[in-house]
């Protein structure tokens, strides 16, 4: 009887571990931070054809992942206008959008030594005035998705508020030789 219980327990442990390992192997990218549009990215600079908003944004936190089957999960908190002079006083510290969308940008091999950018935009997901939103959807990825970049977009126009990346602080990202 004791052998039977031990065998069943061992099988349960193996079954419990397999999905976690399998899903981890199929993650293209996961992140624990994003960068709010500001400074040189405000309205002037495109990233892969996507323009930043015309006003600066900040965020408290963001996490997410993208898997090879196109499952996209983003949890963003506190994505709001900054408290900067260029932001009208009535917008500072709030989100004025009712929804956020996500954009997945991939580089893909077209063959014949040609690479192109493919941008896939999701539908909108509810966003609070305090800038909280959970995006959980599946996107149709191209045959190859190289160097993916994930954006959080406005719900009403194709401008980004946050993008995968981080503000590392002064001198924190020096190149080492």
Summarize the structure.
The protein has 177 residues and is mainly beta. The protein contains 1 helix and 14 strands.
Question: Number of helical segments?
Answer: 1
Low-confidence residue ranges? 1-23, 172-177
Distance between the termini: 62 Å
Q: Please give the radius of gyration in angstroms.
A: 20 Å
What is the succession of H and E elements? HEEEEEEEEEEEEEE
Q: Total number of β-strand segments?
A: 14
Keyphrases for this structure?
177 residues, 8-stranded mixed β-sheet, 42% strand, 1 helix, 4-stranded antiparallel β-sheet, mainly beta, 14 strands
Question: What would your notes on this structure say?
Answer:
Helices cover 14% and strands 42% of the residues. The model is unreliable at 1-23 and 172-177 (pLDDT under 50). The protein has one domain (29-164). The strands form three sheets. Strands 2, 3, 4, 9, 10, 11, 13 and 14 form an eight-stranded mixed sheet that branches. A four-stranded antiparallel sheet has the order 1-6-7-12. The chain has a two-stranded antiparallel sheet with strand order 5-8. The protein has 177 residues and is mostly beta strands.
